[in-house]
Amino acid sequence: MEPESTVTTCYRHPKVESYVRCTRCDRVICPDCMREAAVGHQCVECVKEGARSIRQARTVVGGQVAAVPVVTYALIALNVLAYVGQLVRPEIVDRFGMLGAGLVGPDGLHYRWQDVYPADFAPEGLVAGEWYRLLTGAFLHLSPTGGTFGILHIVMNMAALWSLGRTVELQLGRVRYVALYLLSALGGSVLVLLLDPDALTVGASGAIFGLGAAYYVMARRLGANMNAVNRFMVTLLVWLVVSIGFTSWQAHLGGLLAGGVVTAAFAYAPRDRRTLVQAGACAALLALLVVLTVGKVMALA
């Protein structure tokens, strides 16, 4: 009778001889499967299980803490890519810019809306069912030589998004930050629809004004030194007033109001039912914007 072999092998690599055991599960592990622990070594599975059991750090509003503001980077990238698309195909602006109601003539040109129009004209905008314009317009900008600012339009907006977005994203967490950005953009588009439905508007300004409101609300919530924050807010409001003559101030104001409402719900929701209150506030704002949009479109049509 042959003596029983005393050779032990790694539980993940049966051909590799080893005599080291995981300090948690006591399984044999080879050097490739060893992970340093406070005492001895642990296997890969035990390390993963331990990581899952560690409570994740949260922001003051309940979002997961993230060291890198990847959503801000992604939003900047989307805006830049959309701008490159505009340069290649300028008709993208007419097709996807925010527009409540307009007409396309038989000559392919665009005309102001009127509810009674010739048979060879076709409606465009939200009255034609193009609901996507409420958000797609927030990712487009003026052409390099268009409007008052030209290429400075996207440069200034992306600089503001870079500056504000990184701070607000780290304060809110990624999911809440995305909700804030999209609802602010939507709020800006809806106010444009309500007050100036014939205007074709583009730009991320509504969403960025929403970030500005969020920056102010979060600073108050976190007990920050408000001197610099108040100066920033005054500058933002002055720009809102000054820009009335040559920008879509309706988008700015709509984004500011929506962003302030959303962030207040995030920041001051009671801790014991925080997620429910925050989600409910976002859903309520979204429902209000939808009702206002549908009502205005029905009135136009």
Overview of the molecule:
It holds the Pfam family Rhomboid. The chain crosses the membrane at residues 60-84, 147-165, 177-194, 200-217, 229-246, 252-269, 276-299. By secondary structure, the chain is mainly alpha-helical. It has 2 domains: 1-54, no CATH class; 70-300, Rhomboid-like (Rhomboid-like fold, Up-down Bundle). 54% of the residues lie in helices and 6% in strands. It contains 10 helices and 7 strands. The strands form 3 sheets. Strands 6-5-7 form a 3-stranded antiparallel beta sheet, with no helix packed on it. The chain has a two-stranded antiparallel sheet with strand order 1-2. A hairpin with a 5-residue loop joins strand 5 (102-104) and strand 6 (110-112). Helix 2 (70-88) packs antiparallel against helix 5 (152-172) and helix 6 (174-195) runs parallel beside helix 10 (274-300). The longest helix has 27 residues, at 274-300. It is elongated. It starts with 19 loop residues before the first strand and ends with a helix.
Outline the fold blueprint:
Elements: E1 20-21, E2 28-29, E3 35-36, E4 41-42, H1 44-53, H2 70-88, H3 91-96, E5 102-104, E6 110-112, E7 122-124, H4 133-136, H5 152-172, H6 174-195, H7 205-222, H8 226-242, H9 249-268, H10 274-300
Helix pairs in contact: 2-5, 5-6, 5-7, 6-7, 6-9, 6-10, 7-8, 7-9, 9-10
GO biological process, one term: proteolysis
Keywords: Hydrolase, Membrane, Protease, Transmembrane, Transmembrane helix
Main location: membrane
